[in-house]
Design a protein that fits this description.
This protein is α+β, with helices and mostly antiparallel strands. The protein has one domain: D-Maltodextrin-Binding Protein, domain 2. It has helices at residues 4-13, 27-39, 69-82, and strands at residues 18-26, 43-46, 60-67. It has a three-stranded antiparallel sheet. The radius of gyration is 11 Å and the shape is globular.
């Protein structure tokens, strides 16, 4: 799809079960989409399965996973296998 913000919005709306992005991102690319997913009852973590923390000195993210909480663990495990 090309846009992480769009795919996060799809997850939040229930139009997609999950999104997995292993690219390098900046927190400003995902902050609004993460809020949408969280407010819709979903969860977003980094590819290692850690919660995202914003406003750090280094604003880059090394991939994210967003999904319904019951699917998040399996998808995050897949993400860790896909990238070193």
């Amino acid at each position: 799809m090309g846009s992480i913000a769009y795919t996060l919005a799809l997850v939040a709306a229930g139009a997609a079960d999950a999104t997995l992005n292993t690219d390098g991102l900046n927190e400003w690319d995902v902050a609004a989409g993460v809020l949408l997913v969280r407010e819709a009852g979903g969860a977003v973590v980094d590819k290692a399965g850690n919660p995202l923390v914003f406003n750090k000195p280094i604003t880059s993210l090394r991939g994210i996973v967003a999904a319904a909480p019951e699917r998040l663990t399996d998808i995050a495990a897949l993400a860790s296998l896909l990238t070193p």
